[in-house]
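Example 3.2
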Amino acid sequence: MTEDQIKDVLMDMGYSLRDQDAQWYRSSAVYRGGSNPTILAINKENGAWKDFKTGDKGNLKELIRLTLNISDKEINERFKNFESDNHYKPSRPKPLPEDGEIFPTSIMDNFVKDNSYWNERGITSDTLDVFQGGVCFAGVMKNRYTFPIFSSRQDLIGVTGRYIYNIKSDSLIKKWKIKGAKKNWRYPLQINSKILKKIKKVILVESIGDMLALWQAGYRYVMVTFGTEISLSIINLMLSLDPDEIIISFNDDSGRGEAGNNAAKKEFNKLSKYFDPHQIKVYLPTGENDFGSMTADQILAWGRYNNVTTI
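Structure, written as tokens:
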């Protein structure tokens, strides 16, 4: 590939190139949603690159794969275009990882505004209305209070629902059901993106129930990981936000084998590869094992003890 062809490939993917010198371009890290215009160095002659924020580096094919979310086979097909007719044929990129599968919004037509389940747990209807959820009495989310998950483009990319009746210990019914690629979710970014950018802090919790309890108490710079593993999509989001403080607040299951503590330690180590360790804190909930079991006063006491402020 010639230098001009490499430049065409990069610009077709959305990279705004600045000349550093005769050998290198500088650009933002489009592949992870970065905004710093000089954080990525790209070699003009061969497309080799290095990200000075994360330390990641690779060749041009790897950068294409990360940016467009396509397979190695598809990348090789694109490179054949150069070999056959010396001309790059761009094609529409696949949806970014944050988008994933798109669901019809008609799903929400089945939502009934019955907030009694959450009201009994101290979550007001005013709080719940922000998240546009409701009870489904038909379909795959039957008998579940269901929340829509939107992308930054306001596409519906998933739903998740909490079963609202008592679950027997021997039942096969799961407390939460998820439809969609949760690894791509950044929830509730559809609601609090401006808050995250302004306050430069993020609290990471396992479930929507934890998020609602924190939100109700005034902690609204929160993200849901939907489990005890922080996805690459959320990490990329935080890299773009560059928060001053990341707070891991997974459920404290220490009474059942220290699962929450061990998960927090594991994810602390993962995040330390991307952020300075002093940016990362582990503040587990002090209730029975999660924020959902704590009162608003208990959550506020947790915040005061850990110097975590409301907004």
